[in-house]
Amino acid sequence: MTSSSTDFLTTGRRVIRREAGALDTLAEALDDSFGRAVSLLMAAKGRVIVSGMGKSGHIARKIAATFASTGTPAHFVHPAEASHGDLGMVAQGDVLIVLSNSGETPEIADILAHAKRFGIPMVGISGRAGSTLMRQATVGLLLPQVPEACETGIVPTTSTTMTLALGDALAIALMEHRAFTPDHFRMFHPGGKLGARLLKVQDLMHKDPPLVPTDLPMGEALLEITRRGFGVVGVTDPQGDLAGIITDGDLRRHLDGLLTHRAGEVMTANPRTIGPEALAGEALALMNDRKITCLLVTAPQTRTPIGILHVHDCLRAGVV
After folding, report:
1. Contact of 83 with 51, CB cutoff 8 Å
2. Number of helices (H) and strands (E), helices first, in the chain?
3. Could you give phi then psi for residue 27, rounded to 5 degrees?
4. Structural domains of the chain in order of their starting residue, each with its CATH number
5. Does the structure show a pLDDT above 80 at 182?
6. Do the Cβ atoms of 263 and 235 come closer than 8 Å?
7. Span 33-55, mean pLDDT?
8. pTM for the full model?
């Protein structure tokens, strides 16, 4: 039997639509047990321990990682390894989340017994209401009965998608209740594109900006521009506030008799600046929009220069 690309496309769309429909069904099926599960997790003095076997184990790892990255300390414990010593990772004060679509996975038996023995609260996620897992769970979250995405109905597909989405829902509910901010998120994601997107100007700026007073002769101002290597220099008034900036464009405009002028006569007054708390991406966008390579950084609510940011600083950090 041969299949065409049209057949493959039809299958792909069927699978995705079936799983999307299952998620809609799951959303409608949520009841007050979801709120009780969130409250149980919120009350944990220790960590959230997520466990599952097989495909559920893969989903459990991702759920634990999502919890950990959004402000809820969590880790994954493999149920088979738990029976050989890793139960020591599950202590009083922790809360368990155990995943099993059947609710009867043999490997989770020791975790269930451990939870009961030491009074460790547990959220069970299963597709069978009367299963051992759901009976022993402090709070049970029941997955609705919808078909798997494969036509045989035996491959964990729709069920694992619903479980993953339910884990995300728990994590985000906790995150929003705790007012978890982008700053908190950045602490857990210092690397990669996520970290770069959340970098602030103060993380990348040079804290000793090139500055000269307004009455400085341009000959000396040129030396400062050359010495610092930014291609610009800020100009400050007698109070130390930023009065202007001298760029290569200003030098070209005053080329005739340049050395007879003082910095205040050549500068561009009231240049565009940025605050230290602004996102580096915002600064990069501003530099691209204005076709400039540097931004002077001023203290909040003032014109006091406290740093300088070059476009290359953003690019080296992966800010795009």
Report:
1. no
2. 15, 12
3. -60, -40
4. 5-179 (3.40.50.10490), 201-316 (3.10.580.10)
5. no
6. yes
7. 94
8. 0.65
